[in-house]
Structure formats: structure tokens, C-alpha cells
Amino acid sequence: MSRSSTIDLEASTVQSYPFTERKSEKKNGQVEVDQAQPANVEDRPRTDGKVVDAVWGTIDEDGPNYRNLGWIRASVLELKTQIGLGVLGLPAVLDTLGFIPGIIVIVVLAIIITWSDLVVGYFKLKHPEVYTVADAAHIMFGPVGREIIGFAFWLEVVAIAGASFLSISVAFNTITEHATCTVVWVVVGAIIVAFFASIQTLGRISWLGWVGLVSILSAVITLMVAAGLTDRPSLAPVGEPFTIITKVAATPTFVDAINAVSIVVFAYAGTPNFFNIVGEMKDPAQYSKSVVAAQTFITMIYLVVGCVTYHFVGQYIASPALGSAGFIVKKVCYGLALPGLVVGGTLYAHTAAKYVFVRVLRNSRHLAKNTPVHYMVWYGCVVFTCGIGFVIAEAIPFFNDLLSLIGALLGTLICIQMESYMWMWDNWTSASRGTRRWTLLMIMNLSYFIIGWFLMVAGTYAAVVTINNNFKSGDVGSSFSCADNSGN
């Protein structure tokens, strides 16, 4: 493992500043980089008043400003990349695991993935040329690693965008009482998301983060209040006596338990977007502050929403959870949540499209300039991303099962294993090697790495078994079906 990296001057003329101050020695047309501490953002060197960035090149008025994100707006984007689809699956997690085990799982995974999110910032400051997790993989594993991890990253964020299309179709079916074929609603959701995802920079999208955050929070607060006031949850038997059952600790099967854990992983699986967020911040040194604020707030929301909803609805949890508190309330909740569902899909579709866009145009003058090639490639990436997301949403049209599969197969790899290995790789030869702090952090990251692999293998197996059983049972809809998926 090595802490140094090289930048080929013939491949790119951009400088690594403003992220770090570095000492360099020119050797054979390359710059051998000595990693140093983050530089003061106010001391950025400029070329004729223009900001020079390690990813975007020269940023000036002749193109979009890809470095205009403050830490508060970054925190809002971090919140919105996570709170949305994930929170709608958490009451079902508590129903599967019980109150105490469910809360423990949520808190433990919050700690693990918060650490992963922080590692993203540490790695970015040491390696300013990184914009996505695939760039980090390239540094550690070379071109082959970049392709494998890059594809896994892209597939994860596209799949989450696809899950948002599915949830948007549920919302439209609920509000309109299934006015048209469900596939049409999925297409409508994909088109709306593609329109907003085509906004070129996260700085310009950040206002949507506020809209989405208010939308989802208002919907889940309405759900909690209504669940406490309703006499009959939506899924409770009509005209028959029923009893709401909640469990302190449940006894699920292995498959059900691992699926529930995978849904929690999905709820925190915004880490891939965090690479893009820190890459577009004005001052990446403030990234850690944004992460701590966002993760603390979102964990509190998850615990409150999950526990309150499960307490009042019990085993009659709908999927997604917004449909749990009665038919009229369900319409209200989905009406409130619809903008948030669109924004959530927008952020993931934007991230997936941006990955392909940067990969195609990196080291080209078209990357940060308003040229015809710039626009054609960008809009083409957005349309392609949303098209693949649509196919995923229609191929696996079961909300909780899709969340479990994404969380297990892709969420663990990109949100746990990669970041824990990134820390170990970056610190293996550090000056603090052998100290108590270094040893404890190394043990912690190695433990997270092993936990991630276990959850990935076991969770993928459990998700596949469940999806297969659902298809065979005939109790759920089929792929590319016009059937109503709102549970009305």
C-alpha cells in the first residue's frame, strides 16, 4: 500500500490545487505527489483570475461553475440523497426484527456508514483528482479496479433512481385511483426526473434538496400523526375485528432478518453521491461538518419515524409505509411526498449521469465549457441513465424487495467495503503506524470491511430468494405490468 500518486502531465494540464498544498518533483514528464494537509481555501492560486481544479480544469465564466457548493447546502443534499425511499421501508424493518433489534441495527449501521462518509472527505483531500468512487478505485486497484467499481457504483445509483420511479408510480396510482396503466406512471416519473436531473451542477440543484426535504418530512409527519389518530390502518381487515401487534424482539427467519438489515443499508446508501458533493464544494475542508450534521439529523428522523409508525400500525405496515394510515390519509401523504420522491430520483439520476459525463469528457476542453459537444454528451447521459432506471424499476416491481437487493448487492460494496479499504490503503504506511490510535482504527476498518462482505453475500442471497418466491407465489404483480401497485 502506498500513499503517493502520480499525475501524468501529458494526459491533463490541470493542477491539483485548491484542495491541497503539495511539494512536487518533476521526473520523466510526471509529477511525483507528496500528500500534505489541506490548504486554506482563501489561498487558492488562480490563473488570470480563474479557478484551476484537479477534476474540472479551469473554471471561469465561460462554462458552468462546478465548485460553488457551501457546507449547508452540501448537508441538505446529503440528507436528501438518503431520506426518501429508505425511510419508507424502516417501519417494516421494525416489524420484521422487533423494536430493540431494529433500533440496534439502525444505530450500528448509522455509525458504520457515517464513518464511510467521513472517509470520502479524507480521501478527497489527499487525492484531489478523485470525483467518484471509481476514481478512488483507480488509484488503489488500477484500470481494472476502476471499471469494476465504477460499474457497480453506476448501477447502484441508477437502480436507486429506478426505485424512485417505482415509488412515483405508486404515488400517482394512489392519488388518481389508478387512472392509467402503471407502466405509464413509471414513464411519467422517469421523464420528470430526467428533466430536473439535466440541471448541470449540484449547486443549482441544491434548492431542490430543500424542496425534497420539506416534502418528505411533511409526508412522514402527517403519516405519524394520522397513524396515531386512525381507528383502522389501511391493511387491517375491513368489517372484522383486528388487533395491532408490535414486538419488542421478533424471531424472523434468516432470510427475512437479512432482508431487513439490507433495507437499513439502503436507507443510508447515499455515500456514492458524497464523492460528487465534496467534489463540488467551495471548501472541501468543511465537508466533515456537513456529514456529521446530516447523519445525526437523519438518524434521529429514521428512529422517530420508524418507531412511531410501527407502534401505531404494527403488523399492518404498507410498502411503502406512506400507505399505512387509511385511504384518505394515504392520498394526502403521497401528495405531500411526491415532490420529495421526484427530488430523490433527480439526485441519483444526476449523479449517475454525471459519472458517465465526466468519464467521457475528462481531460477534454468540452468538460467545463458550454460547447455543443458538452451539451449533447450531458443530455445523452441523462436520457440513458433514466432509461436504464426505468427498466430496473419494471423488472423488479416490488418496493421492499428492490430496496433489499440494491442495499445488499451494491450498497454494502460501495458504502462500506470500499471506504474501509480506502482508509486502510491510505494509512497503511502513515507516520502514526504502530500507535494505539492507528491500531484501533485499523482494527475498526478491517471489522467494517468483513461485516460489509458478510452483509453483501448473505443479503444478496436473501433478496434473490425472496424475489423468486414472490414471482412464484403470484401474490404480487409481474414485470412491466399495468396492474395497480398502490394497494388500494
TrEMBL record:
Principal cellular location given in the protein's record: membrane
Bilayer-spanning residue ranges: 99-123, 148-170, 182-200, 207-229, 249-270, 291-314, 334-357, 377-399, 405-425, 446-467
Compartments reported by the entry: Membrane
InterPro entries for the chain: AA_transpt_TM
Biased composition (Basic and acidic residues): 20-29
Keyword Transport belongs to the record: no
Keywords, alphabetical: Membrane, Transmembrane, Transmembrane helix
Keyword match Transferase: no
Region (Disordered): 18-47
Recorded topology in the membrane: Multi-pass membrane protein
Gene3D superfamilies, per database record: Amino acid/polyamine transporter I (1.20.1740.10)
Domain of life per record: Eukaryota
Domain Amino acid transporter transmembrane: 68-464
Stated family: Belongs to the amino acid/polyamine transporter 2 family.
Name of the protein described by the UniProt record: Amino acid transporter transmembrane domain-containing protein
